[in-house]
Each structure stands twice: as C-alpha cells, then as structure tokens.
Amino acid sequence: MFIEVLVIGIGSLVALSGVGAAAAGYDMTVKAAPIFNSAPAAAVAIAFSYALGILLDRCADIFLQSKRRSLRSRYFPSDVSYAAARRSISQFPELVARADYARSRMRVCRGWFLNSILLLFSANAVLIRFPVQDRSVLVAFASALGLLMVAGFYVAWSSITLTSYKKLHQQMQSAETSALPGQDEFPENTASPS
After folding, report:
1. Cα distance between residue 172 and residue 43, in whole Å
2. What share of the chain is helix, strand, coil (3-state, %, to 5)?
3. pLDDT tens digits, residue range 63-103?
4. What pLDDT sits at residue 179?
5. In sequence order, which residues have a C-beta less than 8 Å from that of residue 51 and are 6 or more positions away?
C-alpha cells in the first residue's frame, strides 16, 4: 500500500511542480532550482508525495465511485452481497492475495487517471509560460499524449475493476460449492456405488 500511494503521489507532485513553475515563471524557476535540487528537498518531496498520494487516491475513488458501482452491480446487486463475497473467500489465503493484487493495480490506475489530467494541464502551462521553440507543436503533442494517458488509465482501471468483480464472483461460487457437506464423498470423475 505504501509503494502504490507513493507512486500516485509522485505523479501528483510532478504535476503540482509544473503548475508552480508555470506560475512563478522561467526566471524565478531557474533561480529556485538549486534549492529544490538538494537532499533535504528530496526527503521533503518523498514525504509530501506520500501525503499527496493518499489525497489523490481518495479523490479518484470519489470521482469514479458511480462507475465503480455500475461495474460491480453486474456481479453483485448490493453492498451486502459484495461484502458477503469478500468474506466467503477470506479463508483462502491464495484468493485473498490475488484480490489484494487486483485492488493494488486498480488503485494505481485510478490514481494515474487523475494524475494524467493534472499532468496534461501542468505540461501545457509550462510550455505556454516558458520560452520554447515550436510551442504550438509541443502543446499539441503534450495534449495528445496527455489525452492518450487519461484514456489509457481509465480503460485499464475499468478493465481491471470489472475482471476483479467477475473473478471474485466466480471464486465465491467455488468457495460455496467446496463448502457444501458431502462434496468430498463423490468426486466428479468417480462413479458413485450402486
């Protein structure tokens, strides 16, 4: 959890740094660069990235909440049925580990979905404020790349989320089937005695 939140937070910090640099202007950014290029600044940046990662993860969760519920309703009609499914696999450590891994990937994708939006605006702000050649070409390229990232992370998040709910539903059904009494008495490939 620490690493995924940090990965999300670093993207947010880069976006905020770009916005700050654009607001400060080129000359001020060049003067401040040595201060930010130091070991104490790096330590503060890591701590701040972690805090930003938590904040952005919560914002992304709220932003995508209605879509997440829509995807979940395909396999679980209510919060109660979803909670019951998670409980039903809790006694199988391998299934719990797989579900945790899927949730980790979902968090990273949803966080970077928002990060991509922030980075799109941040990159364009820097390109507009700083003295660069071929500004219009670079802004068009940054915008296209940013939109591709936004769409890519959204599609990845949707796909992982839906697959996760589908697998949880299948695993819950398997767990319930294996828990039925008398299931071990007659294995599928063995004929029962007559």
Report:
1. 44
2. 80, 0, 20
3. 999 999 999 999 999 889 888 888 888 877 887 888 888 88
4. 54
5. 9
